[in-house]
Specification:
Layout: E1 33-38, H1 40-43, H2 53-68, E2 72-77, H3 80-102, H4 106-110, H5 119-139, E3 144-150, H6 153-156, H7 158-173, E4 176-182, H8 207-217, E5 222-227, E6 247-248, H9 269-281, E7 285-290, H10 300-305, E8 312-314, H11 324-340, H12 343-359, H13 361-378, H14 383-389, H15 393-409, E9 417-424, E10 427-435, E11 438-443, H16 449-460, E12 463-468, H17 473-487, E13 496-498, H18 505-508, E14 517-521, H19 524-533, E15 547-551, H20 557-569, E16 578-584, H21 591-602, E17 606-609, H22 611-615, E18 635-641, H23 644-654, E19 659-663, H24 667-676, E20 681-684, E21 703-705, E22 713-715, E23 721-728, E24 748-749
Helix pairs in contact: 3-5, 8-9, 12-15, 12-16, 12-17, 13-17, 15-16, 20-21
Catalytic activity: L-glutamate 5-semialdehyde + phosphate + NADP(+) = L-glutamyl 5-phosphate + NADPH + H(+); L-glutamate + ATP = L-glutamyl 5-phosphate + ADP
Organism: Ceuthmochares aereus
EC number: 1.2.1.41, 2.7.2.11
Length: about 750
């Protein structure tokens, strides 16, 4: 029977009955009772003499934080031998210095070398000091710790087992962290042939087996085993082909090669795996991770409990489909095959997908109806997001038209020569377009994004991983099925993968060896989160769409209200919708200004006044809280400026470099605005809503980028390509071009091959 902790701010309820381990990492956040096993390599310094105090302090901080959340934490620790070795060496050196003072002569000093220290003596000398250190550290967090020393015999004696169990439960009930260690001062040497003895017994011969035994005895939810390696690898760590195993299943050990044991301690990785599998069989989830890496050790325990992809997770439930790592490899291989196809074949795939969108219209709309009904029943989506989630016949028809545009423009994308140079005689250089590699596109609430992005990836020869929101699961599933059906006509079905596992977005952003570019499609918060989480992978996108329209003194009355209405009201949730309206000061209290205000009121647009605009009004609308606001609804800010120069300065200070517009009949003023506004899209007398891949004639877009590197603005096929250099020579070597060589550089520009414009 488990007990509640007695602290008054309990936040973690008992989440389940013990007996079955967690199936997925995402469930680890429900773990109530946790054992943290600290290996010798984690606790000790690199010289194996003394403790790694900084690392230990970080571990205590993490355990304390989880304990104060209402979890029940236990620590199985090594380190007594190392701490004792440090103390005994100090005593021996001190003794030697005393003897040196009493005796003289080199012959005496030769006999005073430090002897080999026996491990049990070191443990006896170090146990009290180690515990005192733990107590001092936990006291900083107002947590009490208690020491328990055990041996293998304590588990063989039924009465001792009951006593140990009762003691641990009582300590946990009193919100005390038990710190358990094998009593190395009296423990006998390990027996070489003593190992697992059936499903109910494990021989306690090191702290790995001790932690597993305790975890099962105490019906623990989670066992975290920290060592000096990242987790379990499919071959010895450090070898060229070694890959970290994210999830390990019982039976997989046959395909794993174990390396040498830890630099210190009794057990190696093989012992850890056997102990972990025994604990898993007993109903305890297990994660083996690195507790020594300086970049992650400060949060490794909390990351594991939060369900992040750290170390190797042991699970009894094997997923029905491939892992996301396998999907990434499939997308990479499929993308390379896709890029090797003829342009006409890639276009044929996209044309087929366009046909399927209209031919299978009823099935698509039925799946989308399920998503809409579930979203409405759960009430978890705001109205603008529900609109994005909804598909219709007209939307599918527009999608099909856009896909056909992509197919038509894709015939001369991959492999196009963009530069030719004759380096020297018979030495010609070409720069050609090639796919980026594997794209990860993460999108929210917009199932129409899936065929658009898929078509662009196919046209550019890129492999694609898609991660859609769960609110569009049914729609995404059928659209992905149709995409794979179209890809199958040329045997490249695997090039586009839909991630259906419980992978967190943050974990996907860490797959830097599988993914070459991340493209987020969704809210500004989603984009910011992905930009923050991405580890070594470039992110293409924009975090906000704060678009401006500046109305100049020479603006046309007929154009102003039409452009403003379209920019704000046509689709207010879009990232290219108007958010701030800049009015020249001379237009205040004019009929044109009154028409603008009347139109916004008729359209039920809520107006927020900028500071300067508010100062001109006796009774002003609510003053804006920030001039950097993306409303995403029928709301906008109005601010006053004195000139086009001031409008440009305002946009640079408060804008997001997305899309900005000037309305004027003065060409000189318009050109000044177009040349000086530093945004991805700058328009004259046109709605902000034209900032779109389809409207630009790109067929579709994977997103709108405000980045200054690579692609900018609506990103179509061109933005998903990079280049490589091809050099064709005939026995050329650099030494021939030296001062005394026989060849000279020409560096002549050569004409480009004729492009296929059909």
């Amino acid at each position: 029977v488990r007990c509640w902790s007695n602290i008054p701010f309990i936040t973690m309820p008992l989440s389940r009955a013990h007996g079955k381990s967690f199936a997925h990492r995402s469930e680890l956040k429900h773990a109530k009772r946790i054992v943290v096993k600290l290996g010798s390599a984690v606790v000790t310094r690199g010289d194996e003499c003394g403790l790694a105090l900084g690392r230990l302090a970080s571990i205590v901080e993490q355990v304390s934080m989880l304990q104060n959340q209402g979890r029940e934490m236990m620590i199985v620790t090594s380190g007594a031998v190392a701490f004792g070795k440090q103390r005994l060496r100090h005593e021996i050196l001190l003794s030697q210095s005393v003897r040196q003072a009493l005796h003289s002569g080199q012959s005496q000093l030769k006999d005073m070398a430090i002897p080999v220290l026996e491990a049990r003596a070191c443990a006896a000398a170090g146990q009290s000091g180690l515990m005192a250190l733990y107590e001092a550290m936990f006291t900083q967090y107002s947590i009490c710790a208690a020491q328990i020393l055990v041996t293998n015999l304590d588990f063989h004696d039924e009465q001792k087992r009951r006593n140990l169990n009762g003691t641990l439960h009582e300590l946990l009930r009193m919100n005390i962290v038990p710190i358990i260690n094998t009593n190395d001062a009296v423990v006998p040497p390990p027996e070489p042939n003593s190992d697992l003895q059936g499903v109910n017994v494990i021989s306690v011969k090191d702290n790995d087996s001790l932690a597993a035994r305790l975890a099962v005895e105490m019906k623990t939810d989670l066992l975290i085993v920290l060592s000096d390696v990242e987790g379990l690898f499919d071959s010895p760590p450090g070898s060229d082909d070694a890959k970290l195993i994210d999830i390990f299943y019982p039976g997989d050990q046959q395909s794993v090669t174990f390396g040498t044991k830890s630099r210190v301690g009794m057990g190696g990785m093989e012992a850890k795996v056997k102990a972990a599998l025994w604990a898993l069989q007993g109903g305890t989830s297990v994660v083996i991770a690195n507790g020594t890496h300086p970049k992650i050790s400060g949060h490794v325990i909390t990351d594991i409990v939060e369900g992040k992809k750290v170390g190797t997770f042991f699970s009894e439930v094997k997923p029905a489909g491939p892992t996301v790592e396998q999907q990434g490899e499939m997308a990479r291989a499929g993308g390379r095959t896709l890029a090797a196809l003829q342009p006409e074949q890639r276009a044929e795939i996209i044309y087929r997908l366009a046909d399927l969108l209209t031919d299978q219209r009823e099935e698509i709309l039925l799946a989308n109806k399920k998503d809409l009904e579930e979203a409405e029943n759960k009430g978890r989506l705001a109205l603008p997001l529900l609109k994005r989630l909804s598909l219709s016949t007209s939307k599918l028809n527009s999608l099909a038209i856009g896909l056909r545009q992509i197919a038509a423009s894709s015939r001369d994308s991959v492999g196009r020569v963009i530069r030719r140079t004759r380096i020297a005689k018979d030495l010609d250089l070409e720069q050609v377009t090639v796919p980026i590699g594997v794209l990860l596109v993460i999108f929210e609430s917009r199932p129409d994004c899936l065929p658009q992005v898929s078509a662009l990836a196919i046209a550019s020869g890129n492999g694609l991983l898609l991660k859609g929101g769960k609110e569009a699961a049914h729609s995404n599933q059928i659209l992905h099925h149709l995409t794979q059906e179209a890809l199958s006509i040329h045997g490249v079905k695997d090039a586009v993968q839909l991630v259906n596992t419980r992978e967190e977005v943050e974990d996907l952003c860490r797959l830097d060896k599988l993914i070459d570019l991340i493209i987020p499609r969704g809210s500004s918060q989603l984009v910011r989160d992905i930009q923050k989480a991405a580890k070594g992978i470039p992110v293409m996108g924009h975090s906000e769409g704060i678009c401006h329209v500046y109305v100049d003194t020479e603006a046309s009355v007929e154009k102003v209200t039409r452009i403003i209405r379209d920019s704000k009201c046509e689709y207010p949730a879009a990232c290219n919708a108007l958010e701030t309206l800049l009015i020249h000061r001379d237009l205040l209290r004019t009929p044109l200004f009154d028409q603008i205000i009347d139109m916004l009121r008729v359209e039920q647009v809520k107006i927020h006044a900028g500071p300067r605009f508010a100062s001109y009004l006796t009774f002003s609308p609510s003053e804006v809280k920030s001039l950097r606001t993306e409303y995403g609804d029928l709301e906008c800010c109005i601010e006053v400026v004195d000139s086009v120069q001031e409008a440009v300065e305002h946009i640079h200070k408060y804008g997001s470099s997305h899309t900005d517009v000037i309305i004027t009949e003065n060409e000189k003023t318009a050109e000044f605005f177009l040349q000086h506004v530093d945004s991805a899209c700058v328009f004259w007398n046109a709605s902000t809503r034209f900032s779109d891949g389809y409207r630009f004639g790109l067929g579709a877009e994977v997103g709108i980028s405000t980045s200054r590197i690579h692609a900018r603005g609506p990103v179509g096929i061109e933005g998903l390509l990079t280049t490589k250099w091809l050099l064709r020579g005939d026995n050329h070597v650099v030494s021939d071009f030296s001062e005394h060589g026989t060849m000279k550089y020409l560096h002549e520009s050569l004409p480009l091959p004729q492009r296929n414009t059909n």
